[in-house]
Amino acid sequence: MTAHQNGSISTEFSDFLLNCFVRSPSWQHWLSLPLSFLLLLALGANITLLITIWLETSLHEPMYYLLSLLSSLDTVVCLTVIPKVLAIFWFDLRSISFFACFFQMFIMNSFFAMESCTFMVMAYDRYVAICHPLRYPSIITNQFITKAAIFILSRSVFLTLPIPILSGRLHYCGRNVIENCICANMSVSRLSCNDITINRLYQFAGGWTLLGSDLLLIFLSYTFILRAVLRLKAQGAVAKALSTCGSHFILILFFSTILLVFVFTLVVEKKMSSDVPVLLNVLHHVIPAALNPIVYGVRTQEIKQVIQKLLKKGW
Questions:
Q1: Of 103, 110, 120, 280, which residue is 20 to 30 A from 238 by alpha carbon distance?
Q2: CA distance 272 to 209
Q3: Listed residue (63, 68, 72, 70) closest to 52, CA to CA
Q4: Any transmembrane segments, and where (predicted)?
Q5: Which domains does the chain have, with CATH numbers?
Q6: Cα 298 from chain centroid (whole Å)
Q7: Model confidence over 160-193: pLDDT tens digits?
């Protein structure tokens, strides 16, 4: 449709086109197979973990409820992003409707915020377990987990919902090709004819407020944990305490490292191919999701034993 605005003619569109790896088209060929493998691994591992925790009553404890929440978030993020990327790679299905694009944008932003907040609650759980073990059963209760889940959901949705709303209110004309594999906020907003300063500022402020505060609280929790662990004098107590936190700490490293590398590449994007941030953005939606349940399954003895028991029963 052609519309006149301020004396000029602009073309309005009903959908966007996702243009993956414009400068490195060969990446689509070699990336599709490992990406498919990571998707199947993420879905299989997370669903296995969820079923294991659901079927085994001995795992119906607050820590494992938080792990179930993390697995659920990972599963939704993978299914929201990666199948569309593979459809582009295999069938060149680059078109995506406005609604689907902004909905994907909302899911990505809100669920990553929920995942970050879940890590923060898990860090608090470990802090109470090690620094205040006698009070742990009275502090970390099922009621606490319910309240924490409501807080995680409401905080993340409330603070990230303006991102797709601000992008959706923009006027898109002239161009509808998104230079990305996914509907990232700034990749979409750049196509607008309007000023996007507010979008940039909210993305920056909201992102660092959510992720920055969570990482700070996680750092403080582990500082207190480390200080408490070093005071333990019982033989083997230090190793046991660190082991209980090891899995959680590795998951945080997966999540934050890829995120920080992605932010770094955006800062220095003029010195490298613009396809590199796109690649990291795609991988960030599947690598942590694939590794999180595996790390917990391998490092947590209780989960490993239950999975082995269920496999012997044939489920």
A1: 120
A2: 28
A3: 68
A4: 35-55, 67-90, 96-123, 144-166, 208-230, 242-266, 278-298
A5: 2-313 (1.20.1070.10)
A6: 21
A7: 999 999 999 998 887 899 989 999 998 899 999 8
